[in-house]
């Protein structure tokens, strides 16, 4: 398997649809392509003891990301997340081994991680969650993608998701969500994906701007989105600033039916966040008739995307 750190990573960027061109010739020479190419990420395989040998560069990336987030997260993440982060007791200078994470997850909620190559299919994803296993893609972003990466890397899965997986009610939400997905049809799964997206991935909690905090793992693993997500001021001012074409997030009060009908794109910072009053709102949803709501959303159809929809 090609080692991530040895792959010559070209400065980006191609438009999302451009073909990935062949990298630098073996002898190091290269033709100056007018377009740059984005080296694909390749996940690392565990050795026979289940140990993954990361390179110096990859461990340095982890250290840089954790140091940056250590300065940005404390007064932006919700307290349940901060409690979980402390329990994980993550190493600061190197990427943790999955069995070290599993020890904490097993002891707190009976969960564990599952090494996966990258984004996995809905079917595999729901099956893992239904069995209290969380997918962890075993590669880490390069420095050029430090602030924001379009696909989940190990920093996203471990620092974004694992802290709240030590929280019993949050873990139960994930497990129930997985079981619902397992029994859902293909089309229903697309609607369920929006519930996950606007809560576990990109959810905010706290109805007033001054008490608003982040619980979404997709935000907390991105240094730039962590700052952006709470940068919106009061909703009125946000509208005004938006009219001044400053990029400001839109905050919407959480409504399950609205969430299920809201298209999203996974490849850029989110323009819309749904806000719950309290984490318990999330746990009440588990006891509500989610699939009934999905059927209602299907009959009502999707809202118009607020931007050119690519994949949602
Ligand atoms: C269903 C959910 O919205 C999302 O699309 C899933 C799909 N596959 C995934 N695959 C990985 N490795 N990590 C993830 O967080 C997800 N999220
Ligand atoms: N954008 C997140 C990673 C992510 C990708 C896709 C879905 C969810 C999360 C980050 O930079 O950390
Ligand atoms: Fe995620």
Automatic annotation (TrEMBL):
Keywords: Iron, Metal-binding, Monooxygenase, Oxidoreductase, Phenylalanine catabolism. Fe cation binds at residues 156, 161, 201. The keyword Lipoprotein does not apply. It catalyses: (6R)-L-erythro-5,6,7,8-tetrahydrobiopterin + L-phenylalanine + O2 = (4aS,6R)-4a-hydroxy-L-erythro-5,6,7,8-tetrahydrobiopterin + L-tyrosine. Pfam families: Biopterin_H (PF00351). Its EC number is 1.14.16.1. It comes from the Bacteria. CDD domains: pro_PheOH. Coiled coil: none annotated. One of its GO terms (biological process) is L-phenylalanine catabolic process. Its cofactor is Fe(2+). One of its GO terms (molecular function) is iron ion binding. Residues 1-312 form the Biopterin-dependent aromatic amino acid hydroxylase family profile domain. Pathway: Amino-acid degradation; L-phenylalanine degradation; acetoacetate and fumarate from L-phenylalanine: step 1/6. Belongs to the biopterin-dependent aromatic amino acid hydroxylase family. This is Phenylalanine-4-hydroxylase. It comes from Psychrobacter luti. The lineage of its organism: Bacteria, Pseudomonadati, Pseudomonadota, Gammaproteobacteria, Moraxellales.
């Amino acid at each position: 398997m090609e080692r991530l750190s040895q792959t010559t990573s070209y400065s980006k960027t191609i438009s999302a649809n451009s073909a990935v061109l062949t990298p630098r010739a073996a002898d190091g020479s290269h033709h100056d392509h007018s377009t740059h190419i984005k080296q694909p990420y390749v996940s690392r395989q565990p050795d026979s003891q289940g140990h993954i040998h990361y390179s110096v560069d990859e461990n340095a990336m982890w250290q840089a990301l954790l140091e940056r987030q250590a300065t940005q997260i404390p007064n932006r993440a919700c307290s349940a997340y901060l409690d979980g982060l402390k329990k994980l007791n993550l190493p600061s200078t190197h990427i943790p081994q999955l069995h070290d994470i599993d020890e904490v997850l097993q002891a707190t909620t009976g969960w564990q991680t599952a090494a996966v190559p990258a984004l996995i299919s809905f079917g595999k994803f729901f099956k893992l969650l239904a069995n209290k296993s969380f997918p962890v893609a075993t590669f880490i972003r390069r420095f050029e993608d430090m602030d924001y990466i379009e696909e989940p890397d190990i920093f996203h899965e471990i620092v974004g998701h694992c802290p709240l997986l030590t929280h019993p009610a949050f873990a139960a939400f994930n497990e129930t969500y997985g079981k619902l997905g397992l029994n859902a049809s293909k089309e229903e799964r697309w609607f369920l994906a929006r519930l996950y997206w606007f809560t576990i991935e990109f959810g905010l909690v706290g109805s007033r701007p001054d008490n608003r905090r982040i619980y979404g793992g997709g935000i907390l693993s991105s240094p730039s989105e962590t700052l952006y997500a709470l940068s919106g001021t009061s909703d009125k001012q946000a509208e005004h600033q938006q009219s001044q074409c400053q990029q400001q997030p839109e905050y919407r009060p959480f409504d399950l039916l609205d969430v299920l009908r809201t298209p999203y794109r996974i490849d850029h910072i989110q323009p819309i966040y749904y806000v719950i009053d309290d984490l318990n709102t999330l746990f009440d949803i588990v006891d509500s008739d989610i699939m009934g709501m999905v059927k209602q959303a299907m009959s009502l159809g999707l809202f118009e995307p607020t931007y050119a929809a690519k994949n949602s």
